[in-house]
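Worked Example 4.2. Consider the chain below.
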Amino acid sequence: MKLYADKFGIDNVKIIQDSNKVNPKDLDPKYAYIQVTYVTPFFEEKEAEDRKTDFEMHHNINRFVFETPFTLSGKKHGGVEEQCKRRTILTTSHLFPYVKKRIQVISQTSTELNPIEVAIDEMSKKVSELNQLCTMEEVDMIRLQLKLQGSVSVKVNAGPMAYARAFLEETNAKRYPDNQVKLLKEIFRQFAEACGHALDVNERLIKEDQFEYQGEMKSHYKDMLSELSVVMNEQIAYKEDSAKHPGMERTYSRVIHRASSSVSAAPTPANPDA
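Applying the procedure from the previous section yields the following structure tokens:
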């Protein structure tokens, strides 16, 4: 900011703080505009599997992603049954970290997800994150417990079960493509397994002062499975840790989501640097 304030004058620089598309025609030409948004590293599924450590996940990266929520009614946010989002992937000319703090964005890819696709995407992320946390060489207990709490112990109208009720209850499911409903059901089965596995891992690692907390989480988990069984009209059962029952093995198939993105030329914002 100081760089541009010194160059153009502090009163002539304006910050755009949201991630919505900017039409240069709507901007006042007498000002210099800087659009700032939060991005995270973006990896294809195979690439993410190959990057094992936190260092690898945050170095030698030239693709970044940010998401913009919207609804067809024009509001940014709505209920899960109307919430859409736009995922934008930016490619930079050089890998981060770099000798310069700013690198030019050379291309941009955008994909719009409708409400059930948002549910598929969000639940897939939860499954992936839980499984990743459980398979780390050194389990991060704080992160694991936060993810568990956000998965099995959430408010009635929020979290995973809000997606299940909105898209998988029989009367609601009829409004959506059959293949997407089937995919979301499969992801919820994987989610139930991932939560059970995470609870088992947590139980093995906690100390005595967290036994009560573990019991509460298990109770919430079983309540969630009961409700999920009703919503999906099938039995979603709690499974004990396979380590307690030799011969039983858990298998987790990764979820591959829709990738029908449209590529457009890089825009020309006031500051085209990442």
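The radius of gyration is 22 Å. The chain has a mean pLDDT of 83. Compare this with Example 4.1 before moving on.
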